[in-house]
Write a structure and sequence with these properties.
198 residues, mainly alpha, Arc Repressor Mutant, subunit A, Tetracycline Repressor, domain 2, 0% strand, elongated, TetR family transcriptional regulator, DNA-binding transcription factor activity, HTH_TetR
Length: 198
Amino acid sequence: MSESFPASRRADAVKNREHILQIAHDAFAESGLTSLNEIAKRAGIGAGTLYRHFPTREALILAVYQHDIERLVASVPHLLAERTPLEAFRRWFFTLADYVRLKHGLGEALHSPAAQEAIRGSYAPVTSAVETLIRACVADSSMRPGVQAADILLLMGFLWRIAPGPEAGRQAERMMDLVLDGLASPKGTTARAGERQE
Protein backbone atom coordinates (compact mmCIF):
# COMPACT_ATOMS: atom_id res chain seq x y z
CA MET A 1 0.00 0.00 0.00
CA SER A 2 2.78 2.41 0.91
CA GLU A 3 4.40 1.84 -2.49
CA SER A 4 1.23 2.50 -4.52
CA PHE A 5 0.44 5.78 -2.76
CA PRO A 6 3.40 7.74 -4.22
CA ALA A 7 2.64 6.23 -7.65
CA SER A 8 -0.98 7.39 -7.47
CA ARG A 9 0.17 10.84 -6.35
CA ARG A 10 2.53 11.00 -9.32
CA ALA A 11 -0.28 9.95 -11.67
CA ASP A 12 -2.52 12.67 -10.21
CA ALA A 13 0.24 15.25 -10.63
CA VAL A 14 0.71 14.27 -14.28
CA LYS A 15 -3.05 14.43 -14.87
CA ASN A 16 -3.28 17.85 -13.20
CA ARG A 17 -0.39 19.16 -15.28
CA GLU A 18 -2.02 17.88 -18.49
CA HIS A 19 -5.25 19.61 -17.49
CA ILE A 20 -3.50 22.92 -16.86
CA LEU A 21 -1.63 22.71 -20.18
CA GLN A 22 -4.80 22.02 -22.14
CA ILE A 23 -6.63 24.90 -20.45
CA ALA A 24 -3.65 27.18 -21.12
CA HIS A 25 -3.47 26.07 -24.76
CA ASP A 26 -7.16 26.92 -25.28
CA ALA A 27 -6.81 30.24 -23.45
CA PHE A 28 -3.74 31.32 -25.43
CA ALA A 29 -5.47 30.29 -28.67
CA GLU A 30 -8.20 32.81 -27.79
CA SER A 31 -5.73 35.52 -26.78
CA GLY A 32 -1.99 35.49 -26.34
CA LEU A 33 -2.48 38.08 -23.58
CA THR A 34 -4.49 35.79 -21.27
CA SER A 35 -3.17 36.19 -17.71
CA LEU A 36 -1.96 33.36 -15.49
CA ASN A 37 -4.68 34.25 -12.97
CA GLU A 38 -7.34 33.79 -15.66
CA ILE A 39 -5.84 30.43 -16.64
CA ALA A 40 -5.82 29.30 -13.00
CA LYS A 41 -9.47 30.33 -12.71
CA ARG A 42 -10.43 28.39 -15.85
CA ALA A 43 -8.49 25.36 -14.62
CA GLY A 44 -10.33 25.44 -11.28
CA ILE A 45 -7.15 25.83 -9.24
CA GLY A 46 -5.62 28.53 -7.09
CA ALA A 47 -3.05 30.89 -8.54
CA GLY A 48 -0.49 29.52 -6.07
CA THR A 49 -0.95 26.01 -7.44
CA LEU A 50 -0.41 27.24 -10.98
CA TYR A 51 2.72 29.16 -9.98
CA ARG A 52 4.12 26.06 -8.26
CA HIS A 53 3.88 24.21 -11.57
CA PHE A 54 4.91 27.17 -13.75
CA PRO A 55 6.68 29.97 -11.87
CA THR A 56 6.56 32.43 -14.80
CA ARG A 57 4.34 33.15 -17.77
CA GLU A 58 7.22 32.22 -20.08
CA ALA A 59 7.59 28.84 -18.34
CA LEU A 60 3.90 28.08 -18.93
CA ILE A 61 3.98 29.19 -22.56
CA LEU A 62 7.05 27.07 -23.26
CA ALA A 63 5.46 24.06 -21.53
CA VAL A 64 2.30 24.50 -23.65
CA TYR A 65 4.41 24.61 -26.82
CA GLN A 66 6.39 21.50 -25.86
CA HIS A 67 3.21 19.66 -24.83
CA ASP A 68 1.54 20.50 -28.15
CA ILE A 69 4.50 19.25 -30.18
CA GLU A 70 4.84 16.05 -28.14
CA ARG A 71 1.13 15.34 -28.55
CA LEU A 72 1.28 16.05 -32.29
CA VAL A 73 4.25 13.74 -32.83
CA ALA A 74 2.59 10.99 -30.79
CA SER A 75 -0.63 11.30 -32.82
CA VAL A 76 0.87 9.91 -36.05
CA PRO A 77 0.24 6.18 -35.39
CA HIS A 78 -3.33 6.91 -34.30
CA LEU A 79 -4.03 9.01 -37.41
CA LEU A 80 -2.60 6.34 -39.70
CA ALA A 81 -4.69 3.66 -37.99
CA GLU A 82 -7.93 5.60 -38.49
CA ARG A 83 -7.45 7.39 -41.82
CA THR A 84 -5.89 6.87 -45.22
CA PRO A 85 -2.23 7.96 -45.24
CA LEU A 86 -2.99 11.02 -47.34
CA GLU A 87 -5.85 12.16 -45.10
CA ALA A 88 -3.63 11.55 -42.05
CA PHE A 89 -0.98 13.74 -43.70
CA ARG A 90 -3.51 16.51 -44.33
CA ARG A 91 -4.98 16.46 -40.80
CA TRP A 92 -1.55 16.33 -39.17
CA PHE A 93 -0.31 19.39 -41.04
CA PHE A 94 -3.47 21.38 -40.37
CA THR A 95 -2.97 20.68 -36.65
CA LEU A 96 0.71 21.67 -36.89
CA ALA A 97 -0.37 24.93 -38.54
CA ASP A 98 -2.72 25.67 -35.64
CA TYR A 99 0.16 25.15 -33.18
CA VAL A 100 2.55 27.34 -35.18
CA ARG A 101 -0.02 30.16 -35.43
CA LEU A 102 -0.52 29.93 -31.67
CA LYS A 103 3.25 30.11 -31.14
CA HIS A 104 3.51 33.18 -33.38
CA GLY A 105 0.62 34.81 -31.54
CA LEU A 106 2.50 34.61 -28.26
CA GLY A 107 5.07 37.09 -29.50
CA GLU A 108 8.28 37.52 -27.51
CA ALA A 109 7.47 34.84 -24.94
CA LEU A 110 9.24 32.12 -26.94
CA HIS A 111 12.30 34.18 -27.85
CA SER A 112 14.35 33.45 -24.74
CA PRO A 113 17.49 31.29 -25.14
CA ALA A 114 15.82 28.40 -23.27
CA ALA A 115 12.73 28.61 -25.48
CA GLN A 116 14.78 28.77 -28.66
CA GLU A 117 16.76 25.72 -27.57
CA ALA A 118 13.52 23.81 -26.89
CA ILE A 119 12.11 24.81 -30.29
CA ARG A 120 15.27 23.64 -32.03
CA GLY A 121 15.03 20.40 -30.07
CA SER A 122 11.53 19.81 -31.42
CA TYR A 123 12.73 19.79 -35.04
CA ALA A 124 14.07 16.22 -35.01
CA PRO A 125 10.91 14.53 -33.63
CA VAL A 126 8.69 16.61 -35.93
CA THR A 127 10.84 15.65 -38.93
CA SER A 128 10.67 12.00 -37.90
CA ALA A 129 6.87 12.21 -37.70
CA VAL A 130 6.72 13.74 -41.18
CA GLU A 131 8.98 10.95 -42.49
CA THR A 132 6.55 8.37 -41.09
CA LEU A 133 3.63 10.07 -42.83
CA ILE A 134 5.55 10.28 -46.11
CA ARG A 135 6.49 6.58 -45.99
CA ALA A 136 2.85 5.62 -45.46
CA CYS A 137 1.74 7.80 -48.39
CA VAL A 138 4.45 6.40 -50.67
CA ALA A 139 3.56 2.84 -49.64
CA ASP A 140 -0.07 3.24 -50.76
CA SER A 141 0.94 5.14 -53.94
CA SER A 142 -0.72 8.41 -52.95
CA MET A 143 2.67 10.20 -52.95
CA ARG A 144 5.64 9.80 -55.23
CA PRO A 145 8.91 8.37 -53.87
CA GLY A 146 11.87 10.56 -53.03
CA VAL A 147 10.01 13.24 -51.05
CA GLN A 148 12.14 14.69 -48.23
CA ALA A 149 10.67 15.60 -44.85
CA ALA A 150 12.74 18.80 -44.56
CA ASP A 151 11.45 19.95 -47.95
CA ILE A 152 7.86 19.20 -46.93
CA LEU A 153 8.18 21.21 -43.71
CA LEU A 154 9.52 24.17 -45.69
CA LEU A 155 6.83 23.83 -48.33
CA MET A 156 4.00 23.55 -45.82
CA GLY A 157 4.90 26.92 -44.35
CA PHE A 158 2.08 28.37 -46.46
CA LEU A 159 -0.40 26.96 -43.94
CA TRP A 160 0.62 29.32 -41.16
CA ARG A 161 0.96 32.32 -43.49
CA ILE A 162 -2.68 32.31 -44.60
CA ALA A 163 -4.42 35.42 -43.31
CA PRO A 164 -7.16 34.71 -40.76
CA GLY A 165 -10.73 35.25 -41.86
CA PRO A 166 -13.87 33.48 -43.06
CA GLU A 167 -12.13 32.16 -46.19
CA ALA A 168 -8.97 30.97 -44.45
CA GLY A 169 -10.07 27.35 -44.05
CA ARG A 170 -11.22 27.00 -47.65
CA GLN A 171 -8.07 28.63 -48.95
CA ALA A 172 -5.93 26.26 -46.86
CA GLU A 173 -7.80 23.25 -48.28
CA ARG A 174 -7.38 24.50 -51.86
CA MET A 175 -3.68 25.13 -51.41
CA MET A 176 -3.21 21.76 -49.72
CA ASP A 177 -4.82 20.13 -52.78
CA LEU A 178 -2.36 21.96 -55.04
CA VAL A 179 0.59 20.77 -52.97
CA LEU A 180 -0.62 17.18 -52.83
CA ASP A 181 -1.28 17.16 -56.58
CA GLY A 182 2.36 18.11 -57.05
CA LEU A 183 3.51 15.36 -54.70
CA ALA A 184 1.24 12.65 -56.12
CA SER A 185 2.59 9.55 -57.78
CA PRO A 186 1.12 9.06 -61.29
CA LYS A 187 -0.89 6.00 -60.26
CA GLY A 188 -2.18 7.69 -57.11
CA THR A 189 -3.69 10.77 -58.82
CA THR A 190 -6.98 9.17 -59.88
CA ALA A 191 -7.62 7.68 -56.45
CA ARG A 192 -6.93 11.02 -54.76
CA ALA A 193 -9.26 12.90 -57.10
CA GLY A 194 -12.02 10.47 -56.20
CA GLU A 195 -11.28 10.94 -52.49
CA ARG A 196 -11.83 14.72 -52.77
CA GLN A 197 -15.21 14.29 -54.48
CA GLU A 198 -16.71 12.27 -51.62
